[in-house]
Specification:
By secondary structure, the protein is an alpha/beta fold. Helices cover about 35% and strands about 20% of the residues. About 45% of the residues are buried.
Length: about 375
């Protein structure tokens, strides 16, 4: 008689679908490997959409529009172990404090950062909207602190942070030390994002793939760097491609829209198509105002692109300046880093290879999935 496989329930409210390829793909990139050991059901709470069940690339998903149905489904599935991505503060009273099964809570950023760390959301014309965000954030952190204290007393709940920076900030902003935790980055599928040696021609081709829906990703600083490079002799030999979508896209890219060597693509790219785009470029331009890891940057590194990024938040945990990429502080330093790479092909090639090897060791899917499966299985 075959042994029954344990049931793993994952709570994720933005799981990808065939209509929403831009959901939380970093959750799906784990689960497709978890099926080796577990029967999996994803349960999500999406209050502004009709409830629906679907299957996405072999993973069963239940999305609910009502909290009561969401909570009831968790109980009905009778999980042996649970994983949560982006924990809601209201989860604690609704069901978390009653659970005795192993629960692993992945902390990615949005759910564990104080509002004052996201002042780039601030818009004086929409002050009421911002104050609503502040109130929700205070509520979230209050209840996250309760979850942490429960975890410290009852070790069935454990936290997984994608970076050391993320853990440190979560503890600071909740005023609470966390006893039961692991640091495991989001997995980068190195079989999908394979290293390809970059030619001299491709070392002069610069790629940016970002959401333009928020100021978080510092796309304005990236464009400022491109404008600074216009004064350099090398500029006509460079090619920039900017992929993205969001309310700030037209405004941010307006100053470079008329340049012959800047190609604008006002759309995002399905994840499975990104490696083909990576293969045509050598430098990944990705400054940021805040990142708990920088998944798109890590994917580009895996493909052999050299990241030119920002020396802040968790980025230095994934990029070593001058060895696996360049860490900068402003548009001038971004432009200088690109100029250095373009004028020194041997150095560019050295960093390109190092970037791919380093990210494979740190957050390659084989390393990460093995670590996460070990924790889940030990929990069961």
């Amino acid at each position: 008689m075959l042994k029954k496989r344990p049931k793993l329930v994952i709570l994720s409210s933005n799981y990808p679908s065939y209509e929403n390829h831009y959901g939380d793909g970093f959750v799906h990139s784990r689960l497709k490997y978890y099926t080796i050991d577990f029967d999996i059901v994803v349960i999500g709470y999406r209050p502004f959409e009709a409830s629906r069940n679907y299957v996405y690339e072999g993973i069963t998903v239940h999305n609910h529009s009502r909290k009561s149905d969401f909570v009831a489904d968790i109980d009905a599935e009778k999980p042996d172990v649970m994983g949560i991505h982006f924990v809601g503060g209201w989860f604690y009273d609704a069901f978390l404090k009653k659970l005795t099964i192993p629960v692993f809570i992945w902390v990615h950023g949005e759910e564990a950062l104080g509002w004052y760390r996201r002042m780039y959301y601030m818009n004086w014309k929409k002050i009421r909207e911002f104050l609503t965000y502040v109130a929700k954030n205070v509520f979230q952190l209050f209840h996250l602190r309760r979850i942490i204290r429960h975890s410290n007393k009852n070790s069935n709940i454990k936290f997984i942070f994608v970076s050391e920076w993320m853990k440190k900030i979560a503890e600071t902003d909740t005023f609470c030390k966390i006893k039961h935790f692991n640091i495991i980055p989001n997995p980068i599928d190195t079989s999908l994002f394979q290293y390809k040696e970059k030619t001299l021609e491709k070392s002069r081709k610069i790629l940016l793939i970002r959401s333009f829906e928020t100021r978080k990703y510092a796309n304005d600083i990236a464009v400022a760097a491109i404008n600074l490079l216009r004064a350099k002799e090398i500029f006509p030999t460079l090619q920039f491609d900017i992929y993205g979508k969001g309310k700030f896209y037209d405004k941010i890219t307006a100053s470079v829209a008329d340049l012959e060597n800047v190609n604008l693509h006002n759309h995002l790219i399905p994840n499975h198509e990104i490696p083909a785009v990576h293969s045509e470029f050598g430098i990944f331009l990705c400054p940021t105002r805040q990142d708990a890891q920088g998944v798109s940057m890590c994917e580009a590194m895996s493909s052999g692109l050299v990241p030119v990024t920002t020396d802040n938040t968790a980025i230095p945990e994934f990029v070593e300046n001058g060895k696996t990429g360049y860490l900068t502080s402003n548009a001038e330093e971004l432009a200088l880093a690109i100029e250095k790479l373009v004028n020194d092909y041997p150095q560019f090639s050295y960093i390109s290879k190092n970037a791919s090897e380093a990210i494979k060791l740190k957050s390659g899917h084989e390393t990460v999935i093995a670590a996460e499966l070990k924790l889940l299985n030990e929990g069961v």
